[in-house]
């Protein structure tokens, strides 16, 4: 089969579509013939040599895919050859075939095209586990989603609204109309406006109950300033660095909490639990059309370098997908 390999870490042209050995299904795994794979921010880091795959994961990038099951390994029940699926991966989605632990498979939701289904597993699992699991978002809460135009952000806005929250988001101004269409009550231009002031203004001084953050260090103190009493800051990205000073006094006064999580390196059993939760609680919203995949564009695997350039530029809105054929 062919896959996107990275013979030498580097810029987008380090991605090389090359012949590689076929994967074999191990116990508890199936082989998926990949139709499409989502491009995630983490893939850019992996290409640069900064985010190696966890032990046992395929060497090629790709944290999610959609496709058709073509082989089933020992000890797998409940899935059959020919089923259309999408899957959360620890790597290897940028390929014609990938071995997937059965606990990380999801059926393609009714009403979603097989290619677009590749836009869902990573964002659905990340957003559900952090916004519901860690952030405990409740109806009537205010949710602040940083980077509303990202793959994660476009999903989190819709999901927050579906849970009955008021959703505020930060993004460059050109993305605001689309983010309002997705349900954001207020889009904040983080380049021109102070998001802390805007959140306070919109919430009559109360602040946000839950903040889903992708900026890390650069936003830590401002995020704490923007939290409501009892608020929960959930950091899932470090685009603004990893180290910052934390004012425990500000946190303590608000009886607030800070959490930070990652999905890729979790044990298989935890990933399977998250995927089960997504299937039970998120898939019905997708099938009802309340939450939809937001796809900026599809490009063939042979144009992976262009897809990475686009994501690096942040000119995309939603997900960029790589497709086979
Ligand atoms: N922890 C986990 O398990 C996990 C899982 C998946 C993703 N993530 C993280 O989640 C983040 C989003 O991932 P993705 O693949 O969806 O990203 P993406 O589509 O590449 O989007 C990145 C976004 O960052 C925004 N941005 C840049 N500077 C900003 C700032 N100062 N304030 C607010 N937004 C800013 C850009 O929007 P503008 O054009 O508006 O600037 C862009 O939409 C990444 O940091 C990724 O590492 C974490």
Description:
The protein has 325 residues and is of the alpha/beta class. Helix content is 28%, strand content 26%. It has helices at 41-47, 121-134, 151-162, 176-181, 195-202, 220-226, 248-254, 268-281, 283-287, 304-313; strands at residues 2-5, 16-19, 29-38, 64-72, 84-88, 97-101, 105-107, 142-146, 166-171, 186-189, 208-213, 227-235, 257-260, 295-300, 319-323. Strands 3, 4, 5, 6, 7, 14 and 15 form a seven-stranded mixed sheet that branches. Strands 10-9-8-11-12-13 form a six-stranded parallel sheet, sandwiched between helices. Helix 2 packs across helix 3 (151-162), helix 2 (121-134) crosses helix 8 and helix 5 (195-202) runs parallel beside helix 6 (220-226). The longest helix has 14 residues, at 121-134. NADP nicotinamide-adenine-dinucleotide phosphate (NAP) is lined by residues 40-42, 122, 126, 146-147, 149-152, 170-172, 175, 190, 214-215, 236-237, 239, 261-263, 311, 314.
Distance between the termini: 13 Å
Query: Low-confidence parts, pLDDT < 50 over ≥5 residues?
Result: none
Helix content: 25-40%
Q: How would a crystallographer describe the biggest sheet?
A: 7 strands, mixed
| Derived structural class | alpha/beta
Shape: globular
User: How many β-strands, per DSSP?
Assistant: 15
């Amino acid at each position: 089969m062919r896959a996107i390999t990275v013979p030498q870490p580097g810029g987008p042209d380090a991605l090389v579509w090359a012949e590689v050995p076929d994967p074999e299904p191990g116990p508890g795994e199936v082989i998926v013939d990949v139709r499409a794979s989502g491009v995630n921010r983490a893939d850019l880091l992996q290409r640069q040599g900064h985010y190696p795959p966890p032990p046992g994961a395929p060497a090629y990038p790709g944290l999610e895919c959609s496709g058709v099951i073509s082989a089933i390994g020992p000890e797998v029940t409940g899935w059959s050859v020919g089923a259309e699926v999408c899957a959360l991966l620890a790597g290897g989605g940028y390929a014609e075939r990938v071995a997937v632990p059965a606990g990380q498979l999801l059926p393609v939701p009714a009403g979603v095209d097989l290619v677009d289904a590749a836009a869902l597993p990573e964002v659905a699992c990340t957003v559900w586990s952090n916004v519901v699991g860690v952030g405990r978002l409740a109806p009537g809460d205010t949710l602040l989603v940083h980077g509303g135009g990202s793959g994660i952000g476009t999903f989190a806005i819709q999901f927050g609204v579906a849970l009955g929250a008021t959703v505020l988001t930060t993004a460059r101004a050109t993305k605001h109309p689309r983010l309002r269409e997705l349900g954001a009550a207020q889009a904040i231009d983080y380049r021109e406006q102070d998001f802390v002031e805007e959140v306070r203004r919109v919430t009559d001084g109360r602040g946000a109950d839950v903040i889903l953050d992708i900026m890390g260090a650069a936003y830590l103190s401002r995020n704490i300033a923007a939290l409501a009493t009892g608020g929960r800051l959930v950091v899932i990205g470090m685009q603004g660095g990893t180290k910052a000073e934390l004012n425990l006094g500000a946190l303590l006064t608000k009886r607030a909490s800070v959490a930070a999580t990652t999905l890729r390196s979790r044990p298989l059993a935890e990933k399977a639990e998250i995927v089960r939760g997504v299937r039970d609680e998120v898939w019905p919203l997708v099938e009802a059309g309340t939450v939809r995949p937001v796809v900026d564009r599809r490009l063939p695997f042979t144009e992976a370098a262009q897809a990475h350039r686009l994501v690096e530029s942040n000119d995309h809105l939603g997900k960029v997908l790589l497709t086979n054929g």
